[in-house]
Amino acid sequence: MSNNPPLDVTTSCRRGHLHSLHGRPRTDRAGYQCRLCHSASHKDWAKRNPKRRNAIAQKSYTLNKQEVKSRKLIAAFGITVEDYDRMHEAQGGLCAICQKSPVNRGLGVDHNHTTGQIRALLCWTCNFKLGALEDPLYPKLITYLEKYNAD
């Protein structure tokens, strides 16, 4: 005998989750599943099949690279790919600080972490170093360097 309660397609899935709380049922090989159970079974499958899951994710990313980039820019900075491309063109494809073309990565969007205001596009190295400068520890770093460089 199964541990699952009998299926009532109008109110609950096989595990007894109410559809009103967990969404409309989905049909799969196991019968009806609420969204909660469907999500759990998908996560279980992904754990059991990491290579297959990664291959599917890579194929999806390759087919939708522009869409992924667009979603990330909008979510992180509130700008579109067109806004990014305009900034990139205005800077000539070069980092706004070192004026070099990025080697391994594209230019990243530099922004003020307090206000969210976008400043320019930077290479990874300059963006990382600028982030260190904005650290509250920066004045102490300067004092330290001055102390040991005062020859």
Structure characterization notes:
- A hairpin with a 2-residue loop joins strand 1 and strand 2.
- This protein is elongated.
- Helix content is 51%, strand content 10%.
- It starts with 18 loop residues before the first helix and ends with a helix.
- The protein has 2 domains: 1-49, no CATH class; 77-133, His-Me finger endonucleases (His-Me finger endonuclease fold), CATH 3.40.1800.
- The protein is mainly alpha-helical and 151 residues long.
- It has 7 helices and 4 strands; from the N terminus they run H-E-E-H-H-H-H-E-E-H-H.
Number of domains: 2
What structural class results from the helix and strand content?
mainly alpha
Low-confidence residue ranges: 6-10
What's the story with the biggest beta sheet?
Answer: 2 strands, antiparallel
Terminal CA distance reads: 84 Å
Named CATH architecture of the largest domain: 3-Layer(aba) Sandwich
- Helix percent reads 40-55%
* Element order: H for helix, E for strand: HEEHHHHEEHH
Count the E strands: 4
List keywords for this structure.
151 residues; mainly alpha; His-Me finger endonuclease fold; two-stranded antiparallel ribbon; 51% helix; elongated
How do the helices and strands line up, and which of them pair or pack?
Layout: H1 19-22, E1 26-28, E2 31-33, H2 35-48, H3 50-63, H4 65-77, H5 81-90, E3 108-111, E4 118-122, H6 124-133, H7 138-149
Antiparallel strand pairs: 1-2, 3-4
